């Protein structure tokens, strides 16, 4: 018995020495969030962003009535079709218990360009709410845009300039503060100040900078002043200046692609490292704040179609990285130091704890995980750390 215990201790010591973090276990909270007020008959559309603020409030942005099927929006139809349902306001916040604490409908206010397809959401240290405007989802684009699709390689350019090319900043009450970029004026790599369907946003409070996953069009990370919106710098895959050359057709046996394909998220760790989702290349890349490439890792690297790296979030101790994989319908858990996959959460399906189109992930201060489901998933879920 002593020998077995000793051997187990050696194995454990070797495991710890390798620096691999162990994946925690989770249990879905089946009735989270709490139901909306019955009188309002609200329903979520396709959820395109989830984040947690410093007070552990969970913020959600969704695509609203435009993402609802006909049988989901009866009161909004002409002629009136049924009692259910109304699209919930497109920005909402819940507390950890699942109670709705605030909401507003941003497309009802003038003075800024609310995106047709809102994407990622972030909340800075002052409580300002940032929303990217340009959902980078090939499944929502015309046929032939996805990886492996007939007639083109993954990441093919869209047929027409997208309407969404902006990032918006609101205060915590929903008052408009700042717009970066302009709807209908998508830029390209020759116009550094313009965006092109940005899919995610992150704020560096110490430096007063906002990082934009300038994703489906420009395929870069762009950095702006968080107060004025002035352009500061940008980079592409491996820290290179983004080019405008045509991307090659996808070949899983080929060497790593030298460009981003769909930059669907950007997140900043506490140590200042910048993590970027290169969704359709199935990879996470890591940079310094000035864009110097550090390392990369592939996640479920044989994934085709929409790709595997849709969004990422850090554990409170920063030892783990959670990756939302909407195509494979999982949350992958990575050791942040090595970027090795050490576990996963969920599987495909409609029941609590399962996913369809899980495109957003966030973690609160206690290590609980929150997810948002895009496409026809249309829900948020909470997974309690055990």
Explain what this protein looks like in three dimensions.
By secondary structure, the protein is mainly beta. The protein has one domain: Neuraminidase (6 Propeller). Helices cover 4% and strands 34% of the residues. The chain is built from one helix and 26 strands. It has a four-stranded antiparallel β-sheet with strand order 1-26-25-24, with no helix packed on it. It has a four-stranded antiparallel β-sheet with strand order 3-4-6-7, with no helix packed on it. The chain has a four-stranded antiparallel β-sheet with strand order 8-9-10-11, with no helix packed on it. The longest helix is centred in the N-terminal third of the chain and has 16 residues. It is globular and about 55 Å long. The two termini are 30 Å apart. The N terminus is likely disordered.
């Amino acid at each position: 018995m002593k020998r077995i215990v000793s051997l187990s201790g050696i194995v454990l010591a070797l495991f710890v020495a390798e620096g691999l973090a162990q994946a925690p276990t989770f249990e879905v909270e089946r009735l989270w969030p709490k139901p909306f007020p019955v009188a309002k008959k609200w329903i979520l559309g396709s959820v395109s962003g989830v984040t947690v603020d410093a007070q552990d409030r969970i913020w959600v942005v969704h695509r609203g009535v435009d993402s609802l099927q006909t049988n989901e929006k009866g009161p909004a139809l002409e002629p009136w079709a049924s009692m259910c349902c109304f699209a919930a306001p497109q920005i909402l916040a819940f507390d950890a218990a699942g109670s709705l604490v605030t909401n507003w409908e941003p497309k009802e206010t003038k003075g800024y360009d609310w995106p047709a397809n809102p994407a990622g959401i972030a909340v800075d240290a002052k409580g300002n709410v940032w929303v990217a405007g340009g959902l980078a989802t090939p499944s929502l684009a015309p046929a032939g845009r996805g990886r492996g699709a007939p007639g083109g390689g993954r990441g093919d350019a869209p047929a027409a300039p997208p309407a969404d090319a902006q990032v918006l900043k609101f205060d915590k009450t929903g008052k408009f503060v700042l717009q970066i970029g302009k709807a209908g004026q998508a830029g390209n790599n020759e116009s550094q100040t313009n965006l092109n369907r940005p899919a995610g946003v992150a704020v560096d409070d110490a430096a007063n900078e906002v990082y934009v996953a300038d994703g489906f069009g420009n395929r870069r990370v762009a950095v702006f002043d968080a107060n004025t919106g002035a352009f500061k710098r940008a980079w592409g895959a491996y820290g290179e200046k983004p080019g405008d050359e045509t991307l090659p057709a996808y070949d899983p046996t080929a060497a790593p692609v030298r460009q981003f394909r769909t930059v669907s998220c950007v997140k900043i760790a506490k140590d200042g490292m910048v993590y970027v989702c290169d969704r359709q290349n199935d990879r996470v890349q890591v940079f310094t704040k000035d864009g110097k490439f550090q390392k990369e890792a592939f996640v479920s690297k044989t994934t085709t179609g929409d790709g595997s790296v849709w969004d990422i979030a850090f554990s409170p101790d920063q030892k783990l990285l959670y990756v939302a994989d909407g195509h494979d319908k999982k949350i992958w858990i990575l050791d942040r130091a090595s970027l090795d996959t050490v576990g996963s959460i969920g599987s495909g399906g409609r029941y609590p704890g399962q996913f369809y189109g899980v495109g957003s992930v966030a973690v609160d201060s206690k290590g609980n995980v929150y997810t948002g489901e895009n496409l026809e998933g249309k829900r948020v879920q909470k997974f309690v750390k055990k």
